[in-house]
Amino acid sequence: MQKNQYLELNQYLFKDKTVLDLACHDGISTGIIKDLGAKHVYGVEAREELVIKAEKNVIGNVNFYVGDIQDEKLIAPLIEKSDTVVALGVFYHLYNHFGLFSCILKSNIKYVLIETISGPETLDPSMSWGFERVNDVFNGWHNTAEYVPHGVPNLSWIFQSAKLFGFSCDWVYSYGKLPQKTRYNITQKEYMCLKKNHWPEYEKIKSNENLPDSILKDIDSKLVNDGPEHAGKKRTLLRLYNEKIIDSAPIDIKDCYQWLKHKKTCEKIY
Question: In what order do the strands lie in the sheet with 18-22?
Answer without folding.
Answer: 62-66, 40-45, 18-22, 84-88, 111-117, 235-242, 167-175
